[in-house]
Design goal:
The chain is α/β, with parallel strands linked by helices. It folds into 3 domains: 7-70, no CATH class; 78-143; 160-331, Nucleotidyltransferase, domain 5 (2-Layer Sandwich), CATH 3.30.420. Helix content is 45%, strand content 9%. The protein has helices at 7-18, 23-30, 34-44, 53-70, 78-89, 94-103, 112-122, 146-154, 165-169, 211-223, 246-252, 268-280, 292-303, 315-319, 327-331; strands spanning 175-182, 189-195, 201-206, 232-235, 255-258. The chain has a 5-stranded mixed β-sheet with strand order 3-2-1-4-5. A hairpin with a 5-residue loop joins strand 2 and strand 3 (201-206). The longest helix has 18 residues, at 53-70.
Length: 332
């Protein structure tokens, strides 16, 4: 037997009544007691005495809402509201306010959870008076000013100007810069990484741009690179790879640095490389229509293209084969 009516059972009851069934017959069809059916009809029928399923359910919901409102102790008691405000401003915690009210004859008992719910849902400006209630607390205010909060976020990353001097000199293989190229659909992108010394690039197609997805792509790429060719990795300030770099460093096994916001020129090698990629995939390209095979074809093309700054060696020859300027002439 059903213990209570749902919207569907109310509509079914209305249909049975309209078809001429008695209350006893309706109860049997619905698997309920006759008393439950009679009570439902008496409580939720219209002013004209007719029972309509959808309207009956609406009437039930409105009555339940009114009932719950009556139970909202703080919202229905202005003096209690003012008392809580005053205690919060004196830096009492919701737990202390609740506990004191329990032993006070002037105010009714109110739970700590109810006070928190009232603050967060009805009086959010009072959150500034809340103290931290522990690392595992469900509710706590954000500690400190916005300046200190920003400083804490900054502490989770290393900025580009703290990189070793060797990175700026471009005298070794293993210092990389990375970014994403946005397509027509911003959810589809290309993840590009380039070695600063050789110009050797790596391109991965991203069908989903989330921190864990991007980090997994980077981890797989860099796991294949020998330790001797991994020193630093500098990324754009975007959140595509997350807001904290410690976990990424563990996955990539390389020091990770971030450029400053809106300072794309700080990653000049990667910006230039992305420009070369754009020759093949212009702005507005729908990456959903580009295959992984096409992406790898572009990657190979750029890695085997002679570069003037390399003495017309290719990035592949310098990065993969260890060739140096003049190596071709010397071997002739």
């Amino acid at each position: 037997m059903h213990k209570q009516f749902s919207k569907e059972s109310r509509i079914e009851l209305a249909a049975l009544l309209k078809a001429g069934h008695s209350r006893r017959e309706c109860a049997k069809q619905l698997g309920m007691d006759k008393s439950a059916v009679t009570k439902e009809i008496n409580r939720n029928a219209g002013d004209d005495g007719r029972y309509r399923g959808a309207r009956a359910h609406k009437k039930y919901l409105e009555r339940r809402k009114r009932g719950k409102h009556k139970e909202r102790k703080i919202e229905n008691d202005p003096s209690l509201q003012q008392h809580i405000r005053n205690r919060l401003k004196k830096r009492d915690s919701p737990e202390q306010i609740s506990g004191r009210n329990t032993i006070s004859i002037n105010h009714q008992s109110i739970s700590t959870e109810t006070i928190y719910q009232w603050i967060f849902n009805e009086e959010p400006h009072l959150k500034k008076y809340l103290r931290r209630i522990g690392k595992k607390g469900k509710y706590r205010r954000r500690r400190g000013t916005k300046i200190r909060e920003k400083a804490r976020e900054e502490a989770k990353v290393k900025r580009i100007d703290t990189r070793p001097e060797a990175v700026d000199k471009k005298e070794r293989i293993g210092d990389y810069e990375g970014d994403t190229i946005v397509g027509k659909d911003r959810t589809k992108r290309l993840l590009t990484n380039v070695d600063r010394f050789s110009g050797y690039g790596m391109i991965d197609k991203l069908d989903l741009v989330r921190a864990n997805v991007v980090q997994d792509h980077l981890a797989r790429r860099f796991q294949k690179i020998p330790r001797s060719k991994k020193h630093t990795y500098t990324y754009d300030n975007g959140t595509e790879i997350g807001k904290e770099d410690l976990e990424l460093e563990k996955k990539m096994k390389v020091e990770v640095y971030r450029a400053y916001p809106y300072h794309s020129w700080e990653r000049g090698c990667n910006e230039n490389y992305n420009g070369l990629v754009r020759d093949f995939f212009p702005k507005g390209t729908d990456f959903a229509t580009i295959s992984e095979k096409e992406v790898k074809r572009v990657e190979r093309n750029l890695n085997h293209r002679p570069r003037k700054r390399l003495g017309y060696l290719t990035p592949h020859e310098v990065y993969m084969l260890g060739m140096t300027t003049g190596a071709i002439q010397a071997g002739m």
